[in-house]
Specification:
With about 280 residues, the protein is an alpha/beta fold. About 45% of the residues lie in helices and about 15% in strands.
């Protein structure tokens, strides 16, 4: 998961990583060291694919810095609205940027709640760890840059884990276990609350709420209670009659959580990406 959070699934990038070396060494030799083949990859990609790479670079940098609303990107780049909409559309077409809306939005294309995010894992990694440390890398201080990667990579991989969980639910991960076909899996949020995963059954009568935790300790019943509480804030279509809950965990579950899940047909546990069946 950590490797995927750095590289995504691009075959060329994966070929540059050596299976005989650990992830830390691979990141050093392929990305951070002087002359590393991927150190300037994002800039090269933009120059190859786009006519105005500086403009697109500025947009990506703004999004990477947390400017996710259209108005925030406009202010950060100084570009006019119609122009930036065109640029964002191009970046979406290249798979570099995505526009998220809460999963409950029936007409995503018309929603005013859209937030932009960098979609490509390597581009996301590059803007997080390479660009801000360019001065260190250019002066041969890759050791210092690598220490930051080491200290923050787990937190960075947590976002990748959430992405993968949503993708896998859309691809049928929980269909057999729940007896339903889940669709439109995405995030849900308000100003004060957030749910990692929300999906609807194909027949429209059920909803799935999910929480993904990429941490080193097992998930307990408190996480389920929190998820149930936040789920009450979601305005659901009238057709929804049943709620289901899925917990995704890097490090498994406490005994108490396993016992409760065994007695509740509406709760499903996923360790990594493997469904726990008891």
């Amino acid at each position: 998961m950590r490797a995927w959070s750095v590289l995504g699934g691009v075959p060329y990038y994966l070929q540059l990583f050596d299976d005989r070396r650990n992830l830390r060494v691979n990141i050093r030799t392929a990305i951070l060291d002087t002359g590393a083949p991927l150190q300037e990859e994002v800039e090269f990609l933009l120059r190859q694919e786009l006519r105005e790479p500086r403009v697109y670079f500025g947009i990506l940098a703004a999004i990477a810095a947390g400017k996710r609303k259209l108005g925030e990107i406009l202010n950060a780049t100084g570009l006019p609205g119609p122009t930036i909409a065109k640029y964002l559309s191009v970046l979406q077409g290249l798979g570099l940027v995505l526009r998220e809306v809460p999963a409950t939005e029936l007409h995503p294309e018309k929603s005013k709640k859209g937030l932009y995010a960098i979609a490509d894992p390597f581009v996301r990694f590059w803007f997080r760890f390479v660009l801000p440390q360019r001065a260190l890398l250019e002066t041969g201080r890759a050791d210092e840059a690598a220490r930051r990667v080491d200290s923050e990579l787990d937190a960075f991989a947590a976002f990748a884990y959430e992405d993968i969980c949503r993708q896998e639910v859309n691809h049928g991960l929980l269909d057999d276990a729940t007896g339903r076909r889940w669709e439109r899996a995405g995030r849900w949020w308000t100003r004060n609350a957030e749910i990692d995963l929300l999906a609807f059954a194909g027949d429209g009568d059920s909803v799935l709420f999910g929480e993904a935790k990429w941490r080193r300790r097992p998930i307990g019943t408190n996480i389920l209670r929190d998820l149930e509480g936040v789920s009450e804030l979601v305005e659901l279509p009238p057709a929804v009659r049943a709620k289901h809950y899925a917990l995704f965990s890097r490090s498994g579950f406490t005994d108490a959580m396993r016992r409760e899940a065994a007695t509740r047909p509406d709760v499903f546990l996923v360790h990594g990406l493997n469904i726990i069946k008891e």
